[in-house]
Amino acid sequence: MLDSYPYPIARVGVIGGGQLGRMLVMAAHRLGCEVVVLDPYLNSPAGQLAGHQIVGNYHDPARLRELVESTTVTTFEIEDIDTDTLIALEDEGHKIFPSPRLLAEIQDKYRQKQLFARNGIPTSDFIDMPEPDPAAFEAFGYPLVQKTRRGGYDGRGVAVMKSAADFDNCLKAPGLVERFVQASKELAVMVARGQDGDVRCYPVVEMEFSSGENILDRLLVPARIDDATTEAAQALAVRTVEAIDGIGIFGVELFLTDAGELLVNEIAPRTHNSGHYTIEASVTDQFEQHLRTVTNLPLGATDLLQPAVMLNLLGEPGYTGRPVIQGLADSLKVPGVAVQLYGKAETKPHRKMGHITVTAPTLELANERASAVSQTIKIVGEQPL
């Protein structure tokens, strides 16, 4: 094959117009790709930057077909999609990455755990729970974690139950029950795998979650773990992606138990919140890397340029309406601070509105500056609730 590409390099279809799609569009433009976005909301964050947006639902077969047939390759930034239609389109010869067959396994949390079990990937014990049953919960044993099979994200669709007294707070939906893992740290690794099988692994990151909403609050990279654990976590993440024959970029979330064991919690078949730091802190960011996989370009280096801390910018409780960013100028005065706002027209309590990455020569300095910035910048709304 000649090293020659007509411009544009590719016409990429992206299912989902949220912040992940927005940053994917930005990377696509750098690589010389055109983008078509499918999202139910006109002027979505990704649609604002893309050359074209199809307004339609992710479960609308006609709109999915319109997107796939009008592009050279299709990918997605969201998992709650009609995979039956995508599988039929893939069978017709259309390029869709990651494979919709794999997505069908992963988007169902119970089937995802079964996928891990079949491939010998260490994970917490689990059982199917079609409907909440106090006797079944008791037989499985507390403490436990209940998850909905589909649709959960950013802390939604997850309930932690320490004892039978918590059963009244269970999720009233088909799901699964997992063994509660006493973790000393929650880690994640971004792994990219190309169509030729080439694999690139990013550094291990450490994640801290807000106690109330269970949304990622702060991410530190490199993770504060020893070299042996770092190597083991990266090896497990790569083994997981290779075992499921994944093509694209994947966010592999891990528990490091108090006993030093590594368990795979979940895997995301897309760009991921735990990889946002790569825009400022890595040689090749996760969004460009994902596009390289789906367009069959060589994968880029994953070296960390500087230690980094990432903060999610969430809508402040008690406000809605048009966003008002407070403390932006003072935050930008801090060395190493980069602000990414997602272009969302309305803020809501705890809604992801953007993120901040702070880079510095040392992780300690980056974390110190991030703590100061987290007290400075706020996103409120024009309408108090």
UniProtKB/TrEMBL annotation:
Residues annotated as binding ATP: 109, 147, 178-181, 186, 265-266
UniProt source species: Oceanococcus atlanticus
Pfam families linked to this entry: ATP-grasp, PurK_C, RS_preATP-grasp-like
Domain of life, per lineage: Bacteria
Tagged with keyword Ligase: yes
Gene3D superfamilies tied to this protein: 3.40.50.20, ATP-grasp fold, A domain, ATP-grasp fold, B domain
The protein's role, per its UniProt record: Catalyzes the ATP-dependent conversion of 5-aminoimidazole ribonucleotide (AIR) and HCO(3)- to N5-carboxyaminoimidazole ribonucleotide (N5-CAIR).
Keywords from the UniProt entry: ATP-binding, Decarboxylase, Ligase, Lyase, Nucleotide-binding, Purine biosynthesis
Family per record: Belongs to the PurK/PurT family.
Reaction(s) catalysed by this chain's protein: 5-amino-1-(5-phospho-beta-D-ribosyl)imidazole + hydrogencarbonate + ATP = 5-carboxyamino-1-(5-phospho-D-ribosyl)imidazole + ADP + phosphate + 2 H(+)
Primary enzyme class: ligase
Name the UniProt record assigns to this protein: N5-carboxyaminoimidazole ribonucleotide synthase
ATP-binding among keywords: yes
Pathway terms, separated by semicolons: Purine metabolism; IMP biosynthesis via de novo pathway; 5-amino-1-(5-phospho-D-ribosyl)imidazole-4-carboxylate from 5-amino-1-(5-phospho-D-ribosyl)imidazole (N5-CAIR route): step 1/2
GO MF term list: 5-(carboxyamino)imidazole ribonucleotide synthase activity; ATP binding; metal ion binding; phosphoribosylaminoimidazole carboxylase activity
ATP-grasp domain span: 113-295
Subunit structure: Homodimer.
Any one GO CC term of the record: cytosol
Gene Ontology terms describing biological process: 'de novo' IMP biosynthetic process
Enzyme nomenclature, EC number: 6.3.4.18
Family matches, as PANTHER family: PHOSPHORIBOSYLAMINOIMIDAZOLE CARBOXYLASE, PURINE BIOSYNTHESIS PROTEIN 6/7, PUR6/7
